[in-house]
Write a structure and sequence with these properties.
This protein has 416 residues and is of the alpha+beta class. It contains 14 helices and twelve strands. It folds into three domains: 256 residues, no CATH class; 47 residues, no CATH class; 88 residues.
Length: 416
């Protein structure tokens, strides 16, 4: 016999327990550093200061839309904590992304700091408690930072750069590439403001508050992809617009960010670039010149991979959070063999519990005995949110309604 939905909270409790365990391990590592620093200072008669910056070892948690159950963003000051934290994690790790957080003034132009920011600025805490421990008044036991109250949505994107960006003057190119990305973010937000004034359809999807609050953080990834962005926002339409705009960057956009023209001169002196361009011209039966100006129209990135997530406070209470906007959403469910009919009955119960004006869940009547929708692939059942009939494109639905439905599915199907 199925328990009532309000009592089926074990899966959400498990999510919370994992987050608290990881946060406790981060705080334990930080406390160990502070204790060792205190003992060293006392033994050597040194004046004690802050052993660790207050924004370090204090993770911000998100619940991703995808295969993983938890996503944590934590600032560290060394590589050693990565090994400790991954070894102490209770659950299976799907991915660990290690990145440096570059200083804005190392690549951006003046005025780029309104939307573009650094992680320490978002993670900054109030004065620490006596003894150097992390201030409890700034974060909750669930690891909710103050910025997550205002910006409950996250879009984490990894960017794979073209091979020619890393050979020769690769470091100089990356600095100018980050500058071009910062400039593109600023210009895209300005363009959105103009479109809002000129188009009612854009104004219906994005508000002024969405544009005023969005923050973009740049990362120097240490993995297959070279760069990354963390877009903290209230509206996914803003985040995806920024990401789509960044994907259009060309070599010419990067060269324009170098007023000294040192990057262009370095590329012209690069034997690797001239050889590769010359080989490409031979394959096209063109006159071989090796001129790097031929790169200007080429796009900088080969591919991008984006993960979306929501802060726990918005996930547990989506209609009271500040998440905004509309989406087209599909939920893919993996069903244990032999449980298809049971799952469909439970989904029907969830759909009936949702407010009719907020969301209609399925494109077909799941109670029909004549046919079933079978998904060929990893998932076994696909639920188009907001669709009454099998039509495409799907109608836009409130993001909060999708989060509410996912939360109820986790309660229902997580653990019995």
């Amino acid at each position: 016999m199925r328990r009532p939905l309000v009592e089926s909270k074990s899966y959400l409790d498990l999510l919370l327990g994992r987050q608290e365990h990881f946060a406790a391990k981060c705080h334990k590592y930080r406390d160990g550093i502070e204790d060792n620093y205190k003992k060293f200072s006392q033994a050597n008669g040194l004046e004690q200061g802050d052993a660790v910056s207050p924004y370090l070892f204090d993770p911000a948690f998100f619940i991703p839309f995808g295969h993983a159950d938890d996503l944590a963003v934590v600032l560290l000051d060394d590589f050693d904590p990565v090994h400790y934290l991954t070894a102490e994690t209770r659950t299976t790790l799907e991915e660990v992304c290690l990145a440096f957080s570059p200083k804005l003034d190392s690549f951006s132009q003046p005025g780029d700091g309104n939307i573009c920011c650094e992680l320490p600025d978002l993670f900054a805490l109030k004065a620490p408690r006596p003894g150097g421990r992390i201030a409890e008044e700034k974060t909750t036991s669930q690891g909710i930072h103050s910025f997550q109250q205002e910006l409950p949505l996250l879009a984490f994107t990894k960017y794979k750069a073209h091979g020619l960006t890393t050979v020769g003057p690769g470091l100089l190119f990356q600095r100018n590439l980050l500058g071009a990305m910062a400039a593109k973010v600023q210009s895209t937000v300005r363009l959105l403001r103009e479109r809002m004034t000129a188009s009612e359809s854009v104004a219906a999807l994005i508000s002024e508050e969405d544009l005023d609050s969005v923050k973009c953080v740049f990362l120097d990834l240490q993995g297959p992809e070279e760069l990354g962005t963390l877009v903290f926002c209230r509206n996914y339409s803003v985040a995806t617009t920024l990401i789509a705009s960044l994907r259009t960057l060309t070599f010419g956009d990067v060269l324009e960010q170098d007023p000294s023209r040192s990057l262009g001169e370095s590329l012209r002196r690069s034997n690797a670039h001239r050889t590769i361009i010359g080989l490409q011209q031979r394959l096209r039966l063109e006159r071989v010149s090796g001129d790097v100006d031929l790169l200007r129209e080429m796009h900088v990135f080969r591919w991008t991979h984006t993960s979306l997530a929501v802060s726990p406070n918005a996930f547990y209470d989506p209609y009271q959070s500040k998440c905004n906007g509309f989406v087209e959403a599909l939920s893919e469910l993996q069903i244990s063999p032999g449980h298809r009919c049971s799952v469909e009955e439970q989904i029907k119960a969830i759909a009936e519990s949702c407010h009719a004006d907020r969301m209609k869940t399925s494109a077909i009547d799941l109670s029909s005995k004549e046919y079933h929708r079978y998904e060929a692939g990893i998932a076994d059942l696909v639920l188009p949110h907001g669709a009454i009939f099998c039509v495409w494109p799907l109608p836009l639905v409130s993001l909060a309604s999708v989060i509410s439905f996912l939360q109820q599915c986790l309660c229902m199907f997580g653990y019995k």
